[in-house]
Design a protein that fits this description.
Number of domains of chain B: 1
Helix content of chain B: over 70%
Largest sheet of chain B: none
Strand content of chain B: under 5%
Largest interface: A-B, 74 and 50 residues
Shape of chain B: rod-shaped
Strand content of chain A: under 5%
Order of helices and strands of chain A: HHHHHHHHHH
Largest sheet of chain A: none
Oligomer: heterodimer
Order of helices and strands of chain B: HHH
Structural class of chain A: mainly alpha
Radius of gyration of chain B: 26 Å
Number of helices of chain B: 3
Radius of gyration of chain A: 23 Å
Number of helices of chain A: 10
Helix content of chain A: 55-70%
Distance between the termini of chain A: 79 Å
Number of strands of chain B: 0
Number of strands of chain A: 0
Distance between the termini of chain B: 68 Å
Chain lengths: ~240, ~70
């Protein structure tokens, strides 16, 4: 009797453990980002981008250690605009993207609270795949990340405030990426680029902090002014 | 024998409780980590690519930002 009860108990426990593991693994598989929306055309575009990048890329003269030192020098600047300027100079000099040290969040996320910063970093990481796409595919990618259910913001029914904020952040990153690319290709001066990117970061911080639109609009006007002379140089490679 | 039986029943209840609690804990952490990447994706995937806008130049992006700002609180 004692033995049979022991086996019954063990069987129940094993069964329940199996159920929990099975439930856990099935929910985690739901979260794997699906890329099946990509058409062959998009895949081709990405392949072309990678191929182009390989051709443009110059041989790396710095060792990993030297790169880390250069990056840490930029990070040591107390002033945000100086940090940005330093990174842009690195991009211009070494013809490569500035990768922040592993423990550093993107500029716009740094002054946020712990939870918001975590979300901000994750959002930034998720957005990277969008910048490999172009045109409508990039726009779709942005809207997917911003949780859109429709192709246009005006048609959205719920959470328009949150969706529009996330979408604008992605659009601002897009301008930032273009400025960085233009600096890398020596079409834009690093100092002027730093002014514009600093304003972009400031606006992104406001958006992430839930600042009202009436306070953001004047800053957008300032950004327009800063970009006025840079636009034609930034857009040289645009469609 | 009765005492042993009671013990076993209590053990089953404790194990069940632990499993239920851990199941819900796992479930809720999963909710946190999935962030923006799942549910709505399938909704937007059903929309044709052609319905999205080609926003590439700085002016187009700035105009799109200005339009989107109107939906901010």
């Amino acid at each position: 009797m004692k033995k049979s009860l022991f086996f019954l108990n063990m069987t129940i426990v094993l069964l329940l453990v199996t159920l929990v593991i099975a439930a856990g693994s099935s929910t985690s598989s739901k979260t794997v980002p699906s890329d099946n929306f990509e058409t062959d055309e998009v895949a081709r575009d990405i392949a072309e981008d990678i191929a182009k990048k390989k051709i443009i890329e110059k041989p790396k003269s710095l060792t990993a250690e030297q790169k880390n030192t250069a990056r840490n020098i930029c990070e040591k600047n107390k002033n945000r605009k100086e940090r940005i300027r330093c990174r842009l100079k690195y991009i211009k000099k070494h013809k490569e993207e500035f990768k922040a040290p592993y423990n550093k969040a993107p500029e716009a996320c740094r002054r946020l609270g712990k939870d918001k910063m975590k979300r901000c970093k994750q959002f930034y990481e998720n957005s990277q795949k969008c910048y490999l796409k172009k045109g409508k595919y990039k726009n779709k990618c942005f809207k997917r990340l911003a949780n859109f259910a429709k192709a246009k913001l005006k048609d959205e029914k719920e959470n328009k405030n949150k969706k529009s904020r996330d979408y604008v952040i992605l659009l601002l990153y897009d301008i930032q990426e273009k400025i960085e690319k233009a600096i890398e290709n020596e079409r834009v001066d690093a100092d002027k680029g730093a002014e514009a990117i600093d304003k972009i970061v400031e606006i992104k911080e406001d958006i992430l902090n839930g600042i009202k639109k009436k306070d953001i609009k004047p800053k957008m006007l300032q950004l327009r002014t800063l970009l006025k002379d840079l636009k034609s140089k930034i857009d040289q490679n645009a469609n | 024998m009765q005492i042993k039986k009671d013990n076993i029943i209590w053990w089953i209840i404790i194990v069940l409780a632990i499993l239920v609690v851990s199941y819900f804990l796992l479930g809720s952490s999963e909710e946190d980590s999935k962030y923006d990447d799942s549910e709505q994706e399938s909704v937007i995937d059903e929309i044709k690519d052609e319905e999205f806008e080609n926003i590439e130049t700085t002016d187009q992006i700035l105009n799109e930002i200005d339009d989107s700002l109107d939906y901010f609180d």
